[in-house]
Amino acid sequence: MRRLERWHMYFSIQRMKQEGLKITQIARRLELSRNTVYKFIEMNPDQFSEYLE
Q: Is residue 16 very low, low, confident or very high in pLDDT (cuts 50, 70, 90)?
């Protein structure tokens, strides 16, 4: 997955969480594991940037 696609995924997860979706709903919509969603929800943009490097 390219870097830009990962940023899009990260912001999609953050947006869906703010909209009130549950972890399972986000994971199903984005076809990700719940563990991945949990991990990315806990990260702020700076931490996610470091994670990508």
A: very high
Answer for the pair 52, 3: CB distance below 8 angstroms, yes or no. yes
pTM: 0.88
Helix axes 45-52, 3-18, angle to 10 degrees: 150
Q: How far, in Å, CA of 23 to CA of 1, rounded?
A: 22
3-state SS assignment for residue 7: helix
Q: What is the pLDDT of residues 37-52, one digit of tens each?
A: 999 999 999 999 999 8
Task: Check: CB of residue 21 under 8 Å from CB of residue 48.
Answer: no
